[in-house]
Amino acid sequence: MFRTTLKNLAAHKLRLLTTSLAVLLGVAFMAGTLVLTDTIGKTFDGLISDINAGTSVHVRSDVTTENELTSAQRARVDTSLADTIARVDGVQAAEPYVEAYARLVDKEGDAMGNPDLGAPTVGGNWMTTPSLNPTDLVHGREPRAGDEVVIDKASADTAGFRVGDPVQVLTQAGTLDQTVVGIATFAGEDSPGGASYTMFTTEAALANLTQPGKADAIKVAATEGTGDAELAARIADVVPDDLQVLTGAEITAEDQASLRDEMSFFNTFLLVFALIALFVGSFIIYNSFSIIVAQRGKEMALLRAIGASRRQVLGSVLLESVAVGLVASVVGLFAGIGVASVLKALFEAVGVDIPAGSVVVTGNTVLVSMIAGFGVSVASALLPARRASRVPPIAAMRAVATDDSSSSRSRKVIGALLGVSGASALVAGTVGSSGLALVGLGALLVFVATLVLGPVLATPVSWLLGAPLPRLRGMSGTLARQNAMRSPKRTSATAAALMIGVTLVVFISILGASTKASVEASVEESFTGDLVVSSGAVGQAGGLPADLTDAVRRLPEVGAATGLRVAPAEVEGSGQPLYAADVQALQQIVEVDEHAGSFADLGSTRIAVDEQVAEDEGWEVGDAVTVAFADTGEQAFTIAALYEATPTLGQYFVDLSTFEANVADRFDNQVLVAFADSVGVDAGRTAIERVADGYPQAEVQDRAAYAAAQTEQMDMILSLIYALLGLAVLIALLGIANTLALSIFERTRELGLLRAVGMTRSQLRSAVRWEAVIIALLGTALGLGLGTLFGWSMVDGLRDEGLTTLSIPTTQLVVVTVVAALAGTAAAVLPARRASRLDVLGAIVSE
Amino acid sequence: MTATLAHPSPPVTHLAPAARAVGATKVYGHGDTAVAALGGVDVEFHAQRFTAMMGPSGSGKSTLMHSVAGLDTLTSGSVYVGDTDLSSLNDRQLTLLRRDKIGFIFQAFNLVPTLTALENITLPLALAGRRADPAWLELVVGTVGLSNRLSHRPSELSGGQQQRVAVARALASRPEIIFGDEPTGNLDSRTGAEILTFMRRAVEELGQTIVMVTHDPVAASYAQRVVFLADGQIVDEMVEPTPERVLDRLKKFGA
After folding, report:
1. Which chain B residue is nearest to residue A757, measuring alpha carbons?
2. Distance separating alpha carbons of residues A274 and A24, to the nearest angstrom
3. What distance in Å separates the CA atoms of residue A117 and residue A101, rounded to the nearest whole number?
4. What are the CB-based long-range contacts (under 8 Å, 24+) for A111-117?
5. d(CA A74, CA A258)
6. I need a surface site. Which of A249, A469, A784, B10 has the fewest CB within 10 A?
7. Alpha helix (H) residue ranges in A466-567
8. What is the three-class DSSP state of B85?
9. Contact residues, chain A, for B213 at CB < 8 Å
10. Does the distance separating the beta carbons of A750 and B113 come in below 8 Å?
11. CB contact, 8 Å: B124 with chain A?
């Protein structure tokens, strides 16, 4: 029995390969993801531990502010602490440590790097104690004066900076004119994990990057013979209780863990797509094995008739699936290493730079790939194998029968029940307030219902989709349509694989388009100013220095201008971005929709809250709330106004003076501008651009450009998702090719007959091609339907989260359909060629 | 009975051959293992006549028919359908020749399962993008008695009905010549007789030309002329055959 299976496999090597390919691609993607994240992880682990190697003790504040957008903000410590610590026995040196936003400007005057999407642009202080300084100077010397900096070698190479060159650095203190005095590497790397790094003297760093007298931490080097833990304990005794004293090993482990934590999102994001690919692949395996088992029914029955047990027949089919799994997991694992570099390139293409050292393949990656490859292959073949084992021995005497059966009554009943309950859940979810969970459940039920009803739908939908074919393509068209309709189970399982990918693409594009439309509508509504000067930065990734805002405000063409700032804060214990602007100016520029109270009442210790948030929390004007800041700790605030949140105003808002009293950073995220009366748009814009020219990171945007900029990042994420879903679609196309190839094998005599009575090769190719197109369009049609339904329900369910506008990107959906039809044609190329090269005489005379 | 040899078939020179083979040779394999299926056969199939080809297994009768029908190629020699030399045609030209000038009736699996009886009958015409001549189609369908079965699929027809559809298809495009490969081989004798009667009527009443390979003396007796092959050569022929005479002639092969 075992030998029979092996002979069978040997006889169908090509089939083994094409069937395996469906799972192999999913495994390769999964392995690639793991290899990439492990490689990045190991690179950073090594870098972090090298950089911290000389640090014996790290002292920092205990106070942090949690936030949804960025990592926790930690309060700063007094630099005088360094002197206190230096006096502790066993301390060789103690130095303040600064790490904050600083961005280099290249020789063309453009700001370097992309801190929003790529690696950070960091500035810090040059540590004078060699063991605390993680860098090695490759050119020049350390900074000695306030206008001298050392920069990382990668930035120097990119922009062509040499020792002695003048360089501009963007900081919260403004654009600084500095001189490059040294170029350094980090633990042998040209840059610390892709980040750009600018090092000032400690004094200049404190003055320009943070605030005088405040550093991010104190780093301590121990004297020889003093243990880190021992020294940490001694230091803890002399510093205030609200400080944390960590050993070098502890800070290294924490930095590594927090990086792993950030990477785990990235890892999960990619693994979702790997799982989708494997899910699609399982359809292909199931379908291929169903067809193979049906074609070999007679052979199986013969084996049963001559004494093979059911278990042996079951085993022989499963053994074949194990072979498929073996090819899929082993080849997939090796292909995964290639996929890792493709993924890296893909992320770089959308602007996310990923540093990576030599490739890391862990035991975990090998294990997961094996489980995925074998698991999906064997599990998907289980049902067909069981069907094979149930072939009665008497079937050996009957003619070969393929499974052209129509759908059972129970399938229709179960499918209809699932569909109805899913649709009800969707409707309930969109009507009710706590809708999202219901929408999710409804979507899942409707999806399963579509899979169950697939064979019921396949025949009528194929009939409909193929309706124009007989007139367009004559007999080839008629045959294509009839062939697509003849095995509804096969056709629907093949189409389902494509349906999954199309559903997700359509769902994502509707969600994306609706989000964009909602953001744009809300910008249109709230942005009543004339222009915005934007830093292109989000949150803590830097911004515009306040002197730009002052310069703009002083222009005669400008009627009102205010900087808009954002910082993380904890409101009643929950981390939130807190927005701030000069309220007086703001009211002349932007229309604020006040539901209760007034923005005019915003003063110190007063806060305005989004009306929706207030309703959920049960807050009203006059209520007291606690707001915690990283720099000033917990403060008592009173709610002065309730308003409707917009992308410009956020959900929590304070006056600029209140903000400055509690937040040390002095960046304006953007500057909102209204022109003076009778100043034309062009004149106003020209005047502002002249000022903004002095600030490399500043971008002058009108309303449309501003709205587009708000959604720019989303466009990139959407393209990334489409590219990743492309894999699922590719696997589905392999499925179409595989099904067609198996069907053609099964129809050898019929094709021989057609060729004998006068069907030309090109007519036969055309028939195969159009059959593929019908199957592809069937999958696409179902996917369009499901994706639109899910997208609509989701947007409706997220109404309260600000998704106010449903937008169906019609052009995009038409493109999806056309591409699917063309892809169907591509999938048919090889099967069609095979069909047309059929040996006519051999096909018709063979018994 | 040696009447056939003593009294050769009456001259039919007033009828042009619908198809002919000249020195048709087919060799399988090469060198020491070469086997000649056809050893230089010359034969003419006259228009508007019903010819049967008989011979033991391996006599070359099927190879000869497949070659003349444009399904197989010769090692040397030529076959002509009308004035067309088949050896000069490429695959596409051969396909179009089969579609437009030749009709086929196979032993089994004659019909495309996804098409109705009528669609099967008009299949070669549909492949050519032509419409059937309605009067002719009605005559053909009526002759084989299928008028009330036209919308049925092959799976809904009996074996005999399926073969009648095949005969109707072979006739529908009014081909120059129709080839039958054991067309009644899978049928019981009564149904077979019915099909053979239709074929004979197609020749006599509709002026068609049929060449049929068979091993059944009764089937052969429906033809107007029988050609006997053995070892890749034409060894004999007989006009106006009867089952008894054919059987007697076949017995000689066994001797």
Report:
1. B99
2. 11
3. 15
4. A111/A170, A111/A696, A111/A697, A112/A155, A112/A158, A112/A159, A112/A196, A113/A155, A113/A196, A114/A351, A114/A353, A115/A537, A115/A541, A115/A542, A116/A536, A116/A537, A116/A538, A116/A541, A116/A713, A117/A350, A117/A351, A117/A352, A117/A713, A117/A716
5. 14
6. B10
7. 469-486, 488-526, 546-554
8. strand
9. none
10. yes
11. yes
Q: How many CA atoms lie within 13 A of B8 on its CB side?
A: 3
A-chain residues near B165 (CB < 8 A): none
Contact A475 B123 (CB under 8 A): yes
- Give the nearest partner residue to A757 out of B92, B104, B114, using CB atoms: B104
Find the DSSP H helices in A546-643. Answer: 546-554, 583-589, 611-617
- Which of B72, B109, B126 is the closest to A749 by Cβ? B109
Q: Report how far residue A650's alpha carbon sits from residue A656's, in angstroms, rounded to the nearest whole number.
A: 14
Burial of A496 (0-12, 13-18, 19+ CB in 10 A): buried
Reduced 3-state DSSP string for B107-162:
CCCCCCCCCCHHHHHCHHHHHCCCCCCHHHHHHHHHHHCCHHHCCCCHHHCCHHHH
Q: A760 and B119: CB-CB below 8 Å?
A: no
Q: What is the pLDDT of residues B138-194, one digit of tens each?
A: 888 888 888 888 999 998 998 889 988 998 999 888 899 999 988 888 888 888 898
Query: Is residue B149 less than 8 Å (CB to CB) from chain A?
Result: no
In eight-state DSSP terms, residue A130 is G
Distance CA(A305)–CA(A288), nearest Å, equals 25
Q: Residues 58-117, chain B: which have Cβ within 8 Å of A? A: 62, 66, 71-72, 91-92, 95-96, 98-100, 104, 106, 109-115
Full-model pTM: 0.80
Determine the Cα–Cα distance for residues A776 and A497; give it in Å rounded to an integer.
Answer: 10
Q: Judge contact between A643 and A593, C-beta under 8 A.
A: yes
Q: CA A355, CA A45: separation in Å to the nearest integer?
A: 12
- A326-381 pLDDT per residue, tens: 989 999 999 998 888 888 887 777 656 666 667 788 888 999 999 999 999 999 99
**Smallest Cα–Cα separation from A239: which of A92, A93, A85, A95?**
A85
Quote the CA–CA distance of A736 and A823 in Å, as a whole number. Answer: 10
Residues of B in contact with A405 (CB under 8 A): none
DSSP A108: T
SS3 A553: helix
